[in-house]
Every structure is written in C-alpha cells, then in structure tokens.
Specification:
With about 525 residues, this protein is an alpha/beta fold. It has 23 helices and 5 strands. The protein has 2 domains: about 325 residues, no CATH class; about 120 residues. A 5-stranded mixed sheet has the order 2-1-3-5-4, covered by helices on one side.
C-alpha cells in the first residue's frame, strides 16, 4: 500500500463512511438503553421551541425537533440527526485536510508536499475522526457537541478558504458556521480570538475586514439568544460562568496537578487511545523517516491556523481542570486540529508504516465499537453477569423506561379519579417523566429549593405551595424533607425498582400529599408553560 492508496476511490470512501454510520444507527436502534437525562431534557425543550433555555442556546432543541418530526420520538429518532453530524464533520475535515496539503502557497514550491498526498490526507482526516471515541461513543447520543464539532470544522474550512485561498465568499460560510455554533454552545466563542490572531499574523487588511464583518454577522445571528437571556435574567450565561469559573474547595497544588493529569490523559483516550501511543512509540524508535515531528508535514499557514484557533479553548480547558474539574469532552473541538495536524503526516509515510498505522486504527475502531455495544454483547453472551461500571458507557441511561412503565398504572389510577399534576423532585425526574410519559397530557412543576433557579425546570415551572390542584410527587429515593413538610407529609402510592445493569437498581416512587395549600390565582405564563405556570 502506498501513501496515496488510502485516498483512492471516492466511492469506496463514501461507502465506508455510510456503512459505519449505519452500523452505529443499528447499535442505537437495537439498544435497550433509554435517553441520558440531558437528552431527555433537550427533547422536552424541543416541544416548545424558543430562543434560549436555562443551560444551553436553542440549536440542540431545534435539531431534535427536526429529528423527531422525521424519525419519530423513540430513542433512535431523537438521536438520528445529531448522530449524522459526525460523518458530516468527517467529510468537512477531509475537505480541509485535502486543501491544506494541496492548496497552500508553500505546496506550490515544494512538490514533496503536493497534491499527490492530498487524497491520502483527506482519507486519514476522516478515518482518524470516525475511529475516535469522540465519534464512536459521544457520536451515539444527542448532545450539543454534535453541532459544535460540525460548525467548528466548517468555520476552520471557511477561514482557510477565505484567508489562504482568498475566496472571499467563504466569509459568508464562516459567519454562518460561527453563528449557528454560538446558537448551539457558547464554546464557539473560543474560536474567534484565535481566528483574529491568525488573520492578523497574515498581514492581510482585506482578510481582517472580512473577519470583522463575518464576526459581526455571526454575533447578529446569536443576538436573539442574548435577547432571550436578557429577558430571563441571564440564566445561560450565569450557568456557563458558574461551571467555568468554579474552583476546588480544598486540596492545594497536589489535587490540581492530579486533576490536570487526569484531564490530559483523558484527551488521549477520547481521540486515539491506540493510535497516539503507537505513533509516539514509532517516532521514539529513532528511525529518521519516523522521527519527524508530525507538525513538520503541515504548511506554515495551516500550522498557524490550527494552533491559534485551538489555543484559547485548550487553555480554558486546562485551567478549568486545574481549578476544579472538567469533563474530557469540553475541549473536543481542539481534537479537530490534532486530526488535521496528523493527517498530512500520516499521508507521507512509507507503505510499510502506512499499513501498520491502518491496522492500529482499525483495531481502535473495533474496540471503540465493542465498547459502544458492550451492554448488548453482555445481554447476548453473559446475561447472568453485570458489566463493570468502567466498561458500561451507558449505565446512567438504563432502567428508566422500565421504571416509568411500572409506575404508569398507579398514575393512570390516580388520573381516573380526577386530574393530577406531578411535582418532580429533581431536574432528571422532570425530564425523564416528560419523555417516558409523553402523550399523557402530563402537567408538571419542579421542586425549587434554591433562591436562584438551578435548572431549566426551576426557572420555567417552579412549584409553589399555593398552586391549586391535586398533586403527586415523583422522587428517586425519599423525597426532600422540606418538600414533604410543605405538603403536610407524604404517603407512598407506588414504587418501582428496576435492574439498571450495574450491581444495583433504579428506584422510583410516587407519593401522595397528606395536605395541600389553598388554591391561588394563576401565575404569569412562560413560553414553555401553560397558563398556570406548569410545564406540559
């Protein structure tokens, strides 16, 4: 196999991407797992579209609403369009890797980096991304990262086209990608200062004018969400700042270094847990052809683009990891730059090394896929044994559908004697109740013990002691003592305990208040509530 061979055959390349996507759709469709609590909440948002929500801008709700309308409200329908964002991101990365190798000014003067390697670089960029746990695990659920990664990759490609290739119409694409990205996740803001440095270092005044105009257009696209936030008291910005700026309670430098090390190791594991260690070992063997630093295969303009657009987000993630803790996927867009840096280097390696790298990447893809379907494999071949928690990526999604199915008869019995409303004791219970009891005309209010709303439901439909109507309380374990006291005590109506597959059970209970407060006038309505201030 030559360095160019992996990129040959566009039809085969498309078939491979489509087949991998279809396999992942099949894995989700045949899974017995429910939605993650965040997915259930996003689905709940999607039924009442507006310009913003407590913790996120509106794009994820719009994406799920479209997916639900086309594919239905089963788990695969909720996730389908979000899952499709990952192969689309791979296509954009492939196009940008091809352009980086074939289209920069330096390529024209250095045939060794020329277009002969461009198809292979495109293949490697797509393969590296789709074989990563980012696409193989995170890409099987509906999260805000789906659109963020697609928009980030599209913005990088548009920026390259506009600045390096001087295709000025690409600024429209850059504005659209950044605007949609900001409507999906505020992390998209981190791209803009790096893009400004990249353009400034090029010394192109016309490009700087294009960046300023497209940046202003992106902010204009984002402005409806900012207006919504202003009207609602800035909940999304407050939530984002809270999780970004929080700090360790105690532990000192040792805890900070341990957290930083764990976060850094996690970055290797979610991008290329087999390929990156193998590449490090291969380079470390000291052979001249392999000892070349991967970045040396990049044209200078591409290295500058990838470094500066990644730096703000990488620095913020590392700082947050050192201050308290950070989820490994928080800087997922940075990995797109790593993919784009590795792809040209892998494309230039000799045939023997290329074959070895393909084998390692194929093994990584198999292992990632096995981890994604580990619960299904366990049910088929070892039903008597629970998966270890560390091997069960979907543990928190299991048991919800069964638990709500067990409670449904008791809920229906209560409803048969008159309308009943539900008080959810937590954000997760409010979201899962909406999804699993969809189509039942469920009216809900959230237990809101905080002075400042701490969730979407506390902001949108907080329960008040003077709310009229008959109520049941849904809890996972004993209800909060303050809620029980406000309702004059609680008696158990029904309970469910469902095996969640990890050496335990998921307990849910319905409780009936022993007394309730007097009826009160209706509260002012919000866009996602009815006239009584209830979530529907």
């Amino acid at each position: 196999m030559t360095a160019e061979r992996p990129g040959a055959g566009l039809g085969l390349w498309v078939v491979a991407l489509a087949s991998l996507f279809a396999l992942r759709l099949l894995m989700v469709a045949t899974s017995a797992d429910s939605l993650h609590v965040d997915e259930a909440q996003y689905w709940d948002w999607s039924r009442t579209l507006q310009w913003g929500y407590y913790s996120k801008p509106p794009a994820i709700a719009v994406l799920i609403a479209a997916s639900d309308a086309v594919f239905g409200s089963a788990e695969i329908g909720v996730r389908a369009l979000a899952m499709a964002c990952y192969p689309l991101t791979a296509v954009v990365l492939a196009a940008l890797a091809r352009d980086i190798v074939a289209g920069d000014e330096a390529v024209q003067a250095r045939p060794d980096k020329g277009s002969g390697h461009a198809p292979a670089a495109a293949w490697w960029a797509a393969a590296l991304f789709m074989a990563s746990p980012i696409a193989g695990l995170l890409g099987m659920v509906a999260t805000t990262d789906a659109l963020l990664l697609l928009c980030w990759a599209s913005a990088l490609w548009a920026l390259w086209q506009a600045v390096v290739r001087r295709r000025h119409r690409a600024w429209v694409g850059f504005a659209a990608a950044c605007g949609v990205g900001l409507l999906d996740k505020y992390s998209m803001l981190a791209l803009l200062p790096g893009a400004a440095v990249f353009v400034w270092r090029r010394g192109d005044r016309r490009a700087m004018a294009g960046l300023l105009a497209s940046g202003a257009a992106a902010l204009l696209l984002w402005s409806p969400n900012l207006w919504w936030n202003a009207q609602a008291g800035w909940p999304t910005l407050r939530h984002t700042a809270d999780i970004t700026l929080r700090q360790q309670d105690a532990g000192g430098a040792g805890v900070a270094l341990a957290s930083l090390a764990e976060f850094s190791l996690g970055q290797v594991l979610i991008l290329a847990p087999l390929l990156l260690p193998w590449l490090a070992w291969s380079v470390g063997r000291g052979r001249r052809a392999d000892a070349e630093w991967p970045g040396s295969a990049l044209p200078r303009a591409a290295a500058c683009l990838l470094f500066w657009t990644s730096l703000p987000m990488a620095a913020a993630g590392l700082l947050q990891a050192a201050r308290s803790s950070a989820e490994v996927n928080w800087i997922a867009p940075v990995h797109l730059s790593v993919v784009l840096a590795l792809a040209p280097w892998l494309a230039r390696r000799g045939a023997a090394r290329t074959r070895q790298a393909v084998r390692v990447l194929a093994l990584q893809l198999v292992l990632v896929s096995a981890l994604g379907c580990a619960p299904w494999l366990q049910r088929q071949f070892a039903p008597a044994h629970a998966l270890p928690v560390w091997l069960d990526a979907w543990a928190r999604m299991r048991g919800w559908s069964g638990a709500f199915a067990e409670l449904a008869p008791a809920w229906q019995t209560e409803q048969s004697t008159g309308a009943v409303r539900l008080i959810g004791a937590s954000r997760g219970l409010m979201a899962h109740a909406a999804y699993h009891w969809r189509g039942r005309g469920l009216e809900r209010a959230a237990w809101a013990p905080h002075t400042v709303a701490a969730s979407h439901y506390e902001l949108s439909c907080p329960w008040r002691v003077d709310m009229p109507g008959r109520w049941l309380v849904l809890s996972q374990g004993p209800p909060p003592g303050a809620l029980a006291a406000a309702l004059g005590g609680l008696e158990l109506v029904a309970s469910a305990r469902v095996d969640n597959g990890q050496a335990g059970t998921l307990p849910l209970q319905l409780w009936r208040p022993l007394s309730v407060g007097a009826p009160a006038p209706d509260a002012p309505a919000r866009p996602d509530t009815d006239s009584a201030g209830l979530c529907r």
